[in-house]
Amino acid sequence: xxxxxxxxxxxxxxxxxxxxxxxxxxxxxxxxxxxxxxxxxxxxxxxxxxxxxxxxxxxxxxxxxxxxxxxxxxxxxxxxxxxxxxxxxxxxxxxxxxxxxxxxxxxxxxxxxxxxxxxxxxxxxxxxxxxxxxxxxxxxxxxxxxxxxxxxxxxxxxxxxxxxxxxxxxxxxxxxxxxxxxxxxxxxxxxxxxxxxxxxxxxxxxxxxxxxxxxxxxxxxxxxxxxxxxxx
Length: 232
Known about the structure:
Elements: H1 8-12, H2 26-32, E1 38-42, H3 48-55, E2 60-65, H4 68-77, E3 83-85, E4 98-104, H5 113-126, E5 127-137, H6 144-157, E6 162-164, E7 170-172, H7 176-185, E8 188-199, E9 205-215
Parallel strand pairs: 1-2, 1-4, 2-3, 4-5
Antiparallel strand pairs: 5-9, 6-7, 8-9
């Protein structure tokens, strides 16, 4: 759930005790990611979704996060999971090592353009051609609280949508086209979208945008992959 550079202190201290609430959509996952897929949960935090994937029957799942505190917590809470702390890029995996990658509420924790591009670009390297990126994140919100803090912090961070929380976190909400553009630039084509409301770290709710994006290029012969359409 954290950025590979900067703002890491929050996730090694206050943030490492948070209860993450951004949920997996099992129906959407099942439509595009078969149980036998090699799955990377990037920005896995304490392994909440990694554990959920394992519980759903995904046999080859690996979680990676840059926060030592979050990975340590994950190893305590889920001792059977394959969780790894890695603080930069490239990750220690070969190109095309995974059939699918999850990027759940990660970009919202990474305020910088360059860092976001680095994350999605690395996932473009790691997901095989024909494989899937399942991204879920928080778009710009229309309520008064968020609109006020977007405006208040825009000059400080140079980006509308970045804001601070009273406990020291720095987060970013995105124009939906920003999220789509990031995955396209990394070599993916968006094949499905779904919206809904989710809980936030501060106990509120927010709109979310889920994207299913397929890695461009020819799939390996015999490679698996769901193709069923998802509802909007």
